Amino acid sequence: MSKLIYLDNSATSFPKPDSVYEFMHSFYCSKGVSPGRSGFDAALEAEDMVTSTRKMLTRLFNGGEDYNRLTFSYNATDSLNLIINGLVEKGTHVVTTMLEHNSVLRPLYMHQQAGTIDVTYVPFDEDGYVHPEDIEKAIRPNTKFVIVTHCSNVIGTIQPLTEIGEICRKKGILFVVDGSQGAGAVDLDMQASNIDVYCFTGHKCLMGPTGIGGSYVREGVEIKHSRAGGTGVRSAYPGHLEEYPYRLEYGTLNILGVAGLHAGVKWITEQGIMNIHRREMELWNILVDGLRKNPAVKLYCCKSAENHNPVLSFNINNFDSSDVGTMLDVDYNIAVRIGLQCAPKVHEGIGTINNHGTVRMSIGAFTTEEEIIAAIDAVNEIASLRN
Does the 18-271 domain belong in CATH 3.40.640.10? Predict the structure, then answer.
């Protein structure tokens, strides 16, 4: 069989840079112990690596002076649950969008069903963007926070965070961003965009492994506890610690995951995030142009490459998306994502909720032009089967 053409980088970037695999292996073999729990050399060196990674990510996001407010979790879903559960109060209102992933929608729905909060879902326009003025119109006197995705995982549109953040700051409302698809994909400045909390995952554009993510919480923003457990310090204290990073970290860290994230952030920083992005978007343009020529292929929200990530959703006339995904896999060894991509309200907005979603191709740092040409040819061949 031919080499796998991997176009599912929005789910997990693959492959990782060799330096990520190498550092994870060497670090875990020599210093894979519990950081911050003991005073022997390996434990201290493990803690130094964790601290260094906190600093790297804080700089990457321009989070603030206190790098300890960069905390680690399992992934963005885990962090978003910690943040949402730590912010909601009975009787409050939350503003979010129709672009959100289930990592935001489901925690909000859980509290909404319990009668704790009320939620407004702001729609996006025909090109896939939320209008900041619509966010502002949705804000009520009891709105506590606005939560918005940085980039859509279905249609790839990068949302106007700075404009939304300006509105939130003016209104005195917290601004939370789901950075799953944005962290490491495009430049970010939390301070310039007035972002109060930025949640991220390590296994996508940050080039780390699965099982590691986190958040940065701006100074002055406090998140109440929704968990409690070990921290390795002040063990006689009966309650979970209030200070960061312990406030949002529970139990022993995934040290192997942090090591991989450390190497991944170092790699994207050396390459230049926007250099990677520009090359990926060049390939995205080739893909869009190649598929747009086929009248049997319908593309969604991709009129312009501006404020866009290299993600493309499409369908082929008279085909179910799952059948197209199976044929791409079995007949052409091309890996894509099909269905609703864990973002059902996006599909409500683009009109694909009732016909099993879309086929999604997402380009990564190691995708080649030859692979994009092969993907175009494959889609066109499949489309020709029922024309």
Answer: yes
